[in-house]
């Protein structure tokens, strides 16, 4: 399911060390961002997502945001893949996969799985798989 911005903010806030709370949210957010925690997530996008340049636009958006991973069509008419990178960039890509897509696509739903923090990236770029 697509992430909810307020829920994501609440979860992120719960990870802020108590010593940072007195410095204000901006400082805490900067401290979390500076930590640069790497995140990975698998995804599957349902709807009108094949034959509409969805993979090409996904690759372009991933490179623009600065995440790595892959995307491919499935035999069931969906698009699947994996995204890895700094937490905030992966979250941006997840939002894009839920709400934007390619101009001619229609996203009915996006499922995310295996979302976790990692110590290093498994990929050096973002690619379209066949």
Q: Could you walk me through the main structural features you see in this protein, from its secondary elements to its overall organization?
A:
- With 130 residues, the protein is α+β, with helices and mostly antiparallel strands.
- Helices cover 38% and strands 32% of the residues.
- It has five helices and five strands, in the order H-H-H-E-H-E-E-H-E-E.
- It has a five-stranded mixed sheet with strand order 4-1-3-2-5, covered by helices on one side.
- A hairpin with a 5-residue loop joins strand 2 (68-73) and strand 3.
Helix proportion range: 25-40%
From the N-terminal CA to the C-terminal CA, the straight-line distance is: 25 Å
Element-level helix/strand string: HHHEHEEHEE
The percentage of residues in β strands lies in 25-35%
Tell me the overall shape.
globular
For the sheet with most strands, the description reads: 5 strands, mixed
Radius of gyration: 16 Å
Q: List low-confidence stretches.
A: 23-34
Task: Output the strand order for the largest sheet.
Answer: 4-1-3-2-5
Number of beta-strand segments: 5
Query: Structural class from helices and strands?
Result: alpha+beta
Mean pLDDT: 83
Count of helix runs: 5
């Amino acid at each position: 399911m697509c992430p909810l911005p307020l829920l994501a903010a609440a979860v992120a806030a719960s990870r802020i060390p108590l010593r940072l709370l007195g410095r204000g949210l901006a400082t805490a957010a900067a401290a979390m961002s500076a930590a640069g925690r790497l995140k990975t997530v698998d995804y599957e996008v349902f709807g009108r997502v094949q034959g509409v340049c969805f993979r090409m636009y996904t690759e372009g958006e991933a490179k623009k945001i600065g995440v790595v991973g892959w995307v491919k069509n499935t035999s069931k008419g969906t698009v699947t893949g994996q995204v890895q990178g700094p937490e905030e960039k992966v979250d941006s890509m997840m939002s894009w996969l839920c709400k934007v897509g390619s101009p001619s696509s229609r996203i009915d739903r996006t499922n995310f799985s295996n979302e976790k923090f990692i110590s290093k990236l498994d990929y050096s770029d973002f690619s379209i798989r066949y």
